[in-house]
Design goal:
This protein has about 450 residues and is of the alpha+beta class. The chain is built from ten helices and 13 strands. The protein folds into two domains: about 1-160, Beta-Lactamase; about 275-445, Heat Shock Protein 90 (2-Layer Sandwich), CATH 3.30.565.10. The chain has helices at about 1-55, 70-75, 105-115, 155-230, 235-265, 280-295, 315-330, 360-365, 375-380, 390-400, and strands at about 80-85, 90-95, 120, 130-140, 145-155, 275-280, 300-305, 310, 335-345, 345-355, 400-410, 410-420, 445. The protein has a six-stranded mixed sheet with strand order 7-9-10-12-11-13, covered by helices on one side. A five-stranded antiparallel sheet has the order 2-1-5-4-3, with helices on both faces. The protein has a two-stranded antiparallel sheet with strand order 6-8. Strand 9 and strand 10 (about 345-355) form a beta hairpin. Helix 1 packs antiparallel against helix 4 and helix 6 (about 280-295) runs parallel beside helix 7. The longest helix has about 70 residues, at about 155-230. The radius of gyration is 45 Å and the shape is rod-shaped.
């Protein structure tokens, strides 16, 4: 558990770190893109005002309309000042109300007189100015000349205000990303650890139950051995003691074999070696063997059609034997047991039905749990390990099949196993089918 907690902390740190770094990088990239777009929009406002002034003061032939100069002065709005110069740098007019510091800027005129557009920031104490100086060209390509030079400028304080607001928004988003990363990381790790904890809990319970179940036959062996050695006994008494020890050894060996089979299937180390399996022949053989082992239980078989699958015969035999043995062990003497096998679309349906006392609904959901033994098992006096149905389920799933139980108190129990008739036609989530005579829904686990 300490290792699990340590790994959980490491995993949480990695997830939180990755999410936080990714979120912060995204915030920086977003800020860079938005800041660039904001600056471009700011400069575009200067360029647009310069175009507006040029369109007002220039005639179609490219000469300056002196009467339109007053209208050009009226374009000094929205915090933008406009200055107009001739191609040689002579100032044509001054804004009626100058609001922007550092203008007119004469240094950029040198570049504009040479035909280049100049945009720069002029620094002054407490008030920087963004200035665009652009020449307006007229004429065809071979005779183009500068008609006028327009200089527009505005304080960049609004730009800094916008960028500061953008930084604040990104900082808040970044903080939210970090908080979300912590919460999301904890949530994701908790969700990831749920199956791990469940698996660890099941493993611990499995080991504890296995140790408990193995303790009983070992205790019988030890007690019988000590009792036999306490004094000299007759040959028959020694034989009885050895038979009791042998029975306990057989029970222990069977339990260990079941546990090993379950462990190999769980770990994927016992892949199904597929071959053609004649389920009908296996059912007939197992019914005959069960008839000898349980002579007080009438056992009947009903095999319809081609009862063959692709699977591993020893495992299928074990599945069938467990079902029939359970039906005989947990029902009173004289209870009929019927085994039916019939193809149903892609599946081969195997049903073992008894007319016993049935199983209480509260017990059905636990029947496939390992080492679980219901009240009917205790009442019948059968001392199995509670691994039979769990092994049936594991073998069925290893073959790509499913298993379910339908039972009614004082009516009987039906266990249905669906095995795919062909490995290439396996459909893992097909609903479990029921026999037409059984009107109850299946309880599959």
């Amino acid at each position: 558990m300490l290792a699990l907690q340590r790994n959980r902390g490491i995993m949480t740190g990695w997830i939180v770190g990755v999410l936080a770094i990714a979120g912060i990088i995204a915030c920086f990239l977003t800020y860079g893109v938005e800041a660039r777009r904001t600056r471009e929009n700011f400069d575009d406002s200067l360029s647009q005002r310069a175009d507006d002034v040029a369109n007002v003061v220039l005639k179609p032939d490219g000469t300056i309309d002196t009467y339109a100069l007053d209208f050009a002065r009226d374009l000094n709005t929205a915090g933008i000042d406009v200055y107009l110069f001739t191609p040689d740098g002579t100032q044509l007019f001054t804004p009626s109300s100058q609001r922007v510091a550092n203008l007119p800027a004469l240094l950029p005129l040198k570049a504009a007189e040479q035909g280049a557009t100049d945009i720069r920031t002029l620094a002054s104490p407490g008030n920087d100015t963004r200035v665009l100086t652009t020449p307006i060209w007229i004429g065809e390509e071979d005779s183009a000349h500068i008609a006028v030079i327009v200089q527009t400028g505005r304080p960049d304080a609004p730009l800094h205000d916008l960028l500061n607001k953008l930084r604040l928004i990104m900082a808040l988003i970044g903080g939210g990303v970090v908080v979300f990363s912590v919460a999301g990381g904890l949530f994701l790790v908790r969700q990831v650890m749920v199956p791990v904890r469940r698996s660890l809990t099941q493993q611990q319970a499995f080991v504890a139950n296995a140790a408990h179940e193995l303790r009983t036959p070992l205790a019988v062996i030890q007690a019988t051995t000590e009792l036999a050695l306490m004094r000299d006994r007759s040959a028959q008494e020694y034989r009885d003691a050895l038979e009791a020890i042998g029975a306990s050894v057989a029970e222990t060996s069977a339990m260990i074999a079941d546990l090993l089979t379950l462990a190999r299937i769980d770990a994927g180390r016992q892949p199904v070696v597929r071959s053609q399996v004649n389920v009908g022949a296996l059912v007939t053989t197992i019914a005959e063997e069960a008839g000898h082992a349980f002579p007080d239980h009438p056992i009947s078989t009903d095999i319809e059609g081609e009862a063959a699958i692709e699977g591993e015969a020893p495992l299928v035999r074990r599945l069938l034997a467990n079902l029939v043995e359970n039906a005989c062990h947990y029902t009173p003497p004289g209870t009929p047991v019927a085994i039916t096998v019939r193809p149903e679309r892609e599946w081969l349906a195997i049903r073992v039905r008894d007319e016993g006392p049935g199983i209480a609904p509260a017990e059905i959901e636990h029947l496939f749990e390992r080492f679980y033994r219901g009240a009917s098992g205790v009442e019948s006096g059968h001392h199995g390990a509670g691994l039979g149905l769990s092994l049936v389920q594991q073998i069925a799933e290893a073959h790509g099949g499913r298993v379910g139980i339908a039972s009614f108190v004082d009516v009987g129990t039906t266990v249905t196993v669906l095995l795919p008739r062909s490995a290439h036609r396996f459909i893992p989530h097909l609903p479990l089918l029921t026999d037409s005579a059984d009107r109850s829904p299946m309880s599959s686990h």
